[in-house]
Specification:
By secondary structure, this protein is an all-alpha fold. Helices cover 77% and strands 0% of the residues. α3 runs antiparallel to α4. The protein is globular, with a radius of gyration of 30 Å. The N and C termini lie far apart (117 Å). The N terminus is likely disordered. This is Flp pilus assembly protein TadD, contains TPR repeats. Pfam families: TPR_6. Keywords: Signal.
């Protein structure tokens, strides 16, 4: 004998359970989507900063293939290619970004940066010319200064470097570039000042330390500046100073500095040894 009341109750219960299951599944899926967004964001940051550059390229290539319409993924791929020192591919990736209707002015700046890294200075100059002067960023003016340097437009170069310095809280790198610009022009004393300022802002920037020694050597000042340096750095700077002395024609002074560099270095300093042997032979 059938019991319609019981059947109806069971059906109602089953439908309710089914609705609960659907609601639960929907909520779970939504929760997982939210978690995945957070995880993806964290992973992207890791890949762009501390991850292996070529692994980052492979990761963003896969992500871009799965999400062809996402400009943020295209940017990350382009950035990772430049970080992996693959500028030609980076140029192609950034050109795709700037062609996207969602791109912005900073994308053009990054595109110009990629072009410079790929040796396409004239094209980079043209790209920067398309950016309105109201877009004032440190990176934009640093690139403008580099291009002005390459064209030997020194007044423009100095103006752009000065602007770039004022637009960043970490001017060590751009001060070093500005100093190198002065060094190539033969303005050694001004270059020395800029390198010293660069080191004040970034005491770990060895390139600026080496350039500072080159500027002093060009003025026949063969004493090391009072700057923070490790024992290995001291030996390397003494070698640079010694070679600068030789270039100025002060060969005996150069030899003495190379001997001091060899004695200072905590390990065997092969480069300085070779240089000294070449001079003594």
């Amino acid at each position: 004998m059938r019991h319609p009341g019981i059947v109806i109750s069971c059906l109602a219960g089953a439908l309710a359970l089914s609705a609960c299951a659907k609601t639960s599944t929907s909520e779970v899926n939504r929760a997982f989507r939210d978690v995945n967004v957070v995880d993806e964001s964290n992973l992207n940051d890791i890949m762009l900063t501390v991850g292996d550059p070529n692994e980052a390229v492979a990761y963003f290539q896969r992500t871009a293939a799965d999400n062809p319409g996402r400009i943020d993924v295209q940017r990350n791929l382009a950035t990772s290619l430049i970080r992996a020192k693959r500028p030609t591919e980076g140029v192609a990736a950034w050109s795709k970004v700037v062609a996207n209707k969602e791109s912005n002015l900073e994308d053009k700046v990054d595109y110009a940066d990629a072009l410079i890294r790929d040796g396409q200075w004239d094209k980079a100059d043209k790209v920067l010319d398309t950016i309105p002067p109201t877009h004032e960023t440190y990176k934009r003016y640093r690139l403008e200064a580099m291009i002005a340097d390459s064209n030997k437009e020194w007044t423009k170069s100095d103006s752009f470097y000065e602007t770039a310095v004022g637009l960043t809280t970490k001017p060590g790198g751009v001060l070093n570039n500005w100093g190198y610009s002065k060094l190539t022009r033969g303005d050694f004393s001004e270059a020395e000042k800029l390198f010293a300022q660069s080191i004040q802002h970034d005491p770990g920037l060895f390139t600026a330390k080496n350039n500072l020694v080159l500027a002093r050597g060009a003025q026949r000042n063969y004493t090391l500046p009072v700057i923070p340096m490790s024992q290995i750095e001291r030996a390397q700077l003494l070698q640079t100073l010694g070679l600068s002395a030789v270039k100025q024609g002060d060969v005996e002074t150069g030899k003495a500095l190379l001997r001091e560099a060899i004695d200072t270095h905590p390990q065997h300093f092969e480069e300085a040894v070779r240089s000294l042997r070449a001079l003594e032979s």
